[in-house]
Amino acid sequence: MENNLLPDENSNNELLPTKLYKRRWYILMVFVYYAFVNGIQMTEYSSITDVVSKYYKVSHFMVNWTSLLYMILYPVLMIPASYIIEKKGLRVASLFGCFGTTIGTLIKLFSIGPNRFWVVMLGQFCTASSLVFIMCLPPKIAAVWFKPSEISMACSLGTLGPSLGNAFGYLLTVSIVNASDDIGQNLSILCWVLAILIIPVSVTVFCYFPEKPPLPPSISQSKYRRDAHKQKKISLFKSSNFPLGFFIHLLAYATNIGVFSTVIILLSEFVNAYFQNAVEDAGKMGFCMMAFGLFGSVAFGFYLDKTHKYKESCIFIYLVATVSIMLLTVALEKRSLICAYIICSIFGVCINPYIPVGFEFGIELTYPSDESTVAGLLFAASQFMSVIMAVSVAHINVYYGSFYALTTLSVVLTVGTLIQTCVPNDLRRQRIFKMERHQVLFRK
């Protein structure tokens, strides 16, 4: 536990002492839990496209919109959400994220019936709208509650919630709902399971989810609190804080997550194109992809806290993801189900960690801009790209086949790898942290 006191160089005011609180893990885990429930619902219907299409008598493309809605709403709501997070802080943003998820989940309890697909979309609209308050928060929680040497790990753990939810969504959905039983009854069970999962955490967030710890965890946060009354906001869009390097990284990030989201949405259709009655296998492959990705996120979090090799990690992730999609195409063409499982797992290990690694690299490039604003901008760009890619690749899949759809994703990842190599390795935040550590040692 740190407890340092450092006077400011340019002011007579002393900084607050710094202290780490054990409750930081409670804050992080509560956030991860409700983000997890939200993440389940992104893949809730798209993981069983054929079944949902049959029950509600809608096209596969309409079912895909239950996931695409998440990607479309994020860029639209990112600016107001970032404003709320900056002005009102973590507690208000957490209430928006958690209660929005709860409302959407409860709405879908009334979606059972072949003519009630509109109720499904209304519920998805609420849960998708709340995602914008969820994805902006991991870097903010890490900065406000954790010390500098834990920030990358905390951010990685924070992003596990939606990813773990996506993974569990594949497994939970195919376990409960299948084409051979009473689809309506099984969908009802699925909706009630989600409602039971979200209600307790909503009560928890309402009762206790503090804005910030009594004392800051780092000197940077101590300075931020001391100067907060001056209302001198650091704009991300000033030329000094929005360098060309960040713009290049933004493009690379959007491309990578665009491919990732497209695979999540269309995996069931890819697998079903090569294997008959493979709805359950597609769901399990999706689970493997996301679940193994969680291990990758944790591993990269530890690695980055020790080495701070953000650019190198991004390039490595890109290269392995590109090769994985190429190998997945070969495995499906060869009708090798086991190889498809293995390659999906490898793809998840290597591409899922790009979400927190890319967040952290973007924050390094734009420091000291607000973490939630940077994360929001990165994710908004990625969601915009996800919609374009998912719709485009879905049409390629329909008109030309899965081989050409997967080949398109391989080409896009190759281009993205080249873009990522052009990002300058400008670690602004690490330079400041290093300077602060030297100041503390000098004072002692």
CATH topology: Growth Hormone, Chain: A
Name the helix and strand elements from N-terminus to C-terminus, one letter apiece.
Answer: HHHHHHHHHHHHHHHHHH
How big is the Rg? 22 Å
Sheet-strand content, in percent, reads under 5%
Number of strands: 0
What distance lies between the first and last C-alpha atoms, to the nearest angstrom? Answer: 17 Å
Helix fraction bin: over 70%
The major sheet is characterized as: none
> What is the molecular shape?
globular
Query: What is the fourth-level CATH superfamily?
Result: MFS general substrate transporter like domains
Q: Could you tell me the mean pLDDT? A: 81
Task: Please identify the top-level CATH class.
Answer: Mainly Alpha
CATH architecture field: Up-down Bundle
Uncertain stretches: 4-12, 231-235
Number of domains: 1
Q: What is the SS-derived class? A: mainly alpha
Helix count, per DSSP? 18
Organism: Ceutorhynchus assimilis
Main location: membrane
Membrane topology: Multi-pass membrane protein
Keywords: Membrane, Transmembrane, Transmembrane helix
